[in-house]
Amino acid sequence: MDFFLDTANLDQIREGVELGIIDGVTTNPSLMAKEGIKGEAAVHAHYRAICELVGGDVSAEVISTDYDGMLREGERLAALHPNIVVKIPCTKDGIRAICKFTDELGIRTNCTLVFSLGQALLAAKAGATYVSPFVGRLDDVSEDGIALVRDIVNIYTAYAYDTQVIAASIRHTRHIIQCLDANADVATCPLSAILGLLNHPLTDIGIARFLADYKKVNG
Ligand code: G3P
């Protein structure tokens, strides 16, 4: 399973990349706003900066909601860097735009804000490179986000769709372990959730014991 960082924060991306286990980055308009990035020129510069830091795919989301706007914006985003994947919401115009990007423009896409198997089916049929089911937001309304990831992976496998499943809206380390069990292609996570995987009291106790034993002999 690949790890993407779900952030637009350059320090966190740098820290994740230094760790050596980050395969890409996903962003959304909320995450860009959180970093205070405003205006198209600043947004584009920020995406270029992210692409320079990380080796893998970087999802950049359109804010247009109409087909023509999505095409215009998506083409500009895709031209910024070869690793940019245009992130498009799962709406009627969005699915139409994904078809156009896939079939005619050779632009890779991430179909986002996916909350049902039906939406994931349309994303795959449109030829999206990635689909992003939102695990945490489904859990927030008492649905089972991980079950949706598992269902999408099973259906895509059964029908041999190429679209890769990014488990998104990951909130904690337990979600990451559940994504593994659901065979997600990618989990896009906050850095804190990934670093949380390191935590185990027996590791800390083990290090303390090894050091104490070493000091007994070496002083
Ligand atoms: O990748 C989508 C993700 O950023 C949404 O996460 O925590 O806002 O539901 P969240």
From TrEMBL:
One CC-aspect GO term: cytoplasm
Key words, A-Z: Cytoplasm, Schiff base
Main location group: cytoplasm
Transmembrane segments: none
Record's signal peptide: none
Source taxon at top rank: Bacteria
Biological process terms in GO annotation: carbohydrate metabolic process; ketone catabolic process
Gene3D superfamilies in the cross-refs: Aldolase class I (3.20.20.70)
Subcellular compartments: Cytoplasm
InterPro entries referenced in this protein's UniProt entry, alphabetically: Aldolase_TIM, TAL/FSA, Transaldolase_3B/F6P_aldolase, Transaldolase_AS, TSA/FSA_arc/bac
PANTHER family, sorted: FRUCTOSE-6-PHOSPHATE ALDOLASE 1-RELATED (PTHR10683:SF40), TRANSALDOLASE (PTHR10683)
Protein name: Transaldolase
Organism: Candidatus [Bacteroides] periocalifornicus
